[in-house]
Design goal:
Layout lengths: L1 H42 L4 E3 L5 E4 L2 E6 L2 E5 L8 E4 L11 E2 L2 E5 L2 E9 L5 E8 L2 E4 L1 E5 L5 E9 L10 E8 L4 E6 L2
Parallel strand pairs: 1-11
Antiparallel strand pairs: 2-3, 3-4, 4-5, 6-8, 7-8, 8-12, 9-10, 9-13, 11-12, 13-14
Length: about 190
Amino acid sequence: MHKYVAVAALTTLLAGAPTLSYAVSQGETAHTTAQSAAAAAKKAPTPRIVRPGEHVVAAPGFELWLTAEGKHWTDPDMPDDPQFRSVVDGNIDPTQPGVSLQASGFEGRYYLSGLYYGGKGTASRVEVATSTGKVRGKLIELAGKPGWGVWYAIADLPPGDDGEDFLRNVTVYDTKGRVYSQLRLN
């Protein structure tokens, strides 16, 4: 009798082994997937934090710097004539998601930048949709929570294109991959 009980117990154990193994394997996969998602969220890029007045060189002649009043920049077309976009003159509503765009063409390239503001979450990355594909840019912000930041990118213009129909939209995404703010052009 002990012999039959032992065989039955062994058979039951062996019959359940694949199911047990599968359950452990599934549990590990689900746990690993959850860990991967959490790790990806932690690794999502965030804007580079800069000091007021700190110059960021995006390319030779294309520099940006931020102050509490807004965005300042030069581009290769006018390196000795700094430009300015205010965040305090009432032209933007930082409580609503928005993106601005300033573009300058020079020697077959487009030097692109603008403000982003008002979105929910933490801005993470920027993409500029063009007639030839997507261009990824970078984000910078002042320390603290100013409620706005600056994006910038450089795009090569296709030969013979004057840039008039080149830009389609600018989208800033948050760290979870959702749209933080967007500007539609075409």
